[in-house]
């Protein structure tokens, strides 16, 4: 990868990290239970990052964006978030000309499962009990499904305006 392309990917990742932080911490941020967890749709932008950027940059955008959101709102979740969001981006692919591919649509299911299981395990480790299963799983399922639907809609719209090609052309000049 050329140095200019690396810099462009880094800048795009930084912009997406900022958008993830805002979407997660401030827009549709609904606290759930007594554990400090919350439902948000910032994962939709994490999915978008993973479909747009090469994996290392997508992981960076996800970890920085979601990590900062947790630092601002529920810091005890930050270590778990860094691990979980790193894993969430891996099923997606940024290869190809489209954001919305069969693989990326299917990846939302795996990413949702990683989120639900990851935060359930983190909650058990943080709070020493596994009894809050329903509250944790229900909230994380809402978050995963909502983020998947939002990503699918957003990716469809961005594909219609040919975002990946336009971004590629813009960044080459």
UniProtKB/TrEMBL annotation:
Alphabetical keyword list: Membrane, Transmembrane, Transmembrane helix
The keyword Transferase belongs to this UniProt entry's keyword annotation: no
UniProt key word Transmembrane: yes
Pfam families in the record: ECF-ribofla_trS
Entry-linked InterPro entries: CHP04002, ECF_substrate-spec-like
GO CC field: membrane
Protein name: Substrate-specific component PdxU2 of ECF transporter
